[in-house]
Amino acid sequence: MMTIVSVLGLNFGIVLVMFVLLWLVSLKLEDASIVDPFWGMGFVIVAWATYVELESPGQRATLMLALTTLWGLRLSAYLFWRNWGKAEDRRYKAMREKHGERFWWVSLFTVFLLQAVLLWFISWPVQLGMLSGKPFGLLDAVGTLVCLLGITFESVGDWQLARFKSNPANEGKVLDQGLWHYTRHPNYFGDFCVWWGLYLVAVAGGAWWTIASPLVMSLFLMRVSGVTLLESTIVERRPKYQNYIERTNAFFPGPPG
């Protein structure tokens, strides 16, 4: 019978191996940004690894596997499509220029292993929620609806942005229509809903104490690598974005100001 310690320990080893292999590929390609499309897929692999480890997966395990797979595959496919044929992302280029010849091993710790640990920790509700054999309840239904809302919000937001960017006439303009009319980051808000939805399902299974995982994810989305990082230089590149900031909610959707 799998225990909390054995599940977390085995999955931690799997995640470390995945990201070290990905780091080796990045050295060959000289492109650290390949880590971005792998982010969603990493959660899918962890979910499937946990599911396979269980002797007799229950309905909740199957539900969490399905939700995580749907979210992760869509995200990875979209980012892979968006980044295909493009040069290394400017964030990693800046790091490469800063560290010079040391970047090959600095990237292992500051990019790949860091994301490995974050992925492993953020996925705790999925890993441990799958262990529960408790019957379905109202909280499972609420969590599923919140998660599906997040996947839909994120998918529609990404599709609207991709369509906007595909029109040459929009060069230099700021998307403020559709979901982007109510929040500057519908994709990040969607992610937020996904992980709180999965957490609610985990709570229904008794894993309420994994709350630190969605809290950390929320912190990164709103204050670290999400909104804050993306908007730190965007006004310099797109002066019209300042007006967009002044009239549109940063994260949670709401009427424009």
Q: What is the structure about, briefly put?
A:
With 257 residues, this protein is mainly α. It has helices at residues 4-29, 35-53, 59-83, 90-99, 103-122, 124-129, 138-165, 186-204, 212-223, 227-231, 234-237, 241-247. One of its GO terms (cellular component) is membrane.
What's the number of helices? 12
> How much of the residues is beta strand, in percent?
under 5%
Question: Span from first to last CA?
Answer: 55 Å
Tally of distinct domains: 2
Order of helices and strands: HHHHHHHHHHHH
Mean pLDDT: 94
Q: Give the low-confidence spans.
A: none
Task: Compute the CA-based radius of gyration.
Answer: 19 Å
Global geometry: globular
- What is the β-strand count? 0
Query: Structural class of the helices, strands and pairings?
Result: mainly alpha
Helix content: over 70%
Largest sheet: none
Structure description:
There is one protein chain. By secondary structure, this protein is mostly helical. It folds into two domains: 1-131, no CATH class; 134-257, no CATH class. 70% of the residues lie in helices and 0% in strands. The protein has twelve helices and no strands. It has helices spanning 4-29, 35-53, 59-83, 90-99, 103-122, 124-129, 138-165, 186-204, 212-223, 227-231, 234-237, 241-247. The mean pLDDT is 94. One of its GO terms (cellular component) is membrane. The chain crosses the membrane at residues 6-25, 32-51, 63-81, 102-124, 136-156, 188-209. Keywords: Membrane, Transmembrane, Transmembrane helix.
Write the layout of secondary structure elements.
Layout: H1 4-29, H2 35-53, H3 59-83, H4 90-99, H5 103-122, H6 124-129, H7 138-165, H8 186-204, H9 212-223, H10 227-231, H11 234-237, H12 241-247
Helix pairs in contact: 1-2, 1-5, 2-3, 2-5, 3-7, 3-8, 4-5, 7-8, 8-9
